[in-house]
Design goal:
The chain has 201 residues and is mostly helical. Helix content is 45%, strand content 6%. The strands form 2 sheets. A two-stranded antiparallel ribbon has the order 1-2. It has a two-stranded antiparallel sheet with strand order 3-4. The mean pLDDT is 87.
Length: 201
Amino acid sequence: MVTLGAEVQAPWQDAHFVGGHPVLDLTNTVFDRNHPVEDGELLKEPSDVLTWCASAGLVETVPPLPEASASGLVPEVQAVREQAWAIFSAIAHGESVPPDPFGALLERAGRGVRAGQVKQIGATPDRFTADWTAPGAIPAALSLLVVNAVFTLPHDRIRACGRCGWLFLDSSRGGRRRWCSMSICGNREKARRHRQSRTRP
């Protein structure tokens, strides 16, 4: 379900997938969490959602989306993302899972399951398929993925980047990873500190 090894598709780049899990990568589809910018939204069109799902390995190919399914897709997926963000940002800061966004995700996932849009594969809850072209199926599938991640990801390894606030799963041996990407935020922070040191009297 989440490890198809899919090739990243435009407009997405490898740098957009640093979270270590699709749910965390979904929360990172806003440019900068700590310093919001006016045009920081990365999910603007239904095509952005579809190519993101393919790039994240949730679908093997980008499905053709009927107009009825495309209508309202972006705001619904953005709502799932913000609910996921509220949950995993709280976890990253050592707080309890907030009940309101978690309950909303449970309800959306439940509607998709009851409607037959999302179906389990085999005996494990993290393997499921979805009718990706049906109205509401993508938000339901993403909601189910978030709910599953709440129970399966190690809470003590969820981190927020010290610079941009993006979330990631710290799989380093010592558990001391600080940046979403050492080549991006890590280097930018080093450069900032270097500039500060040079301007000090």
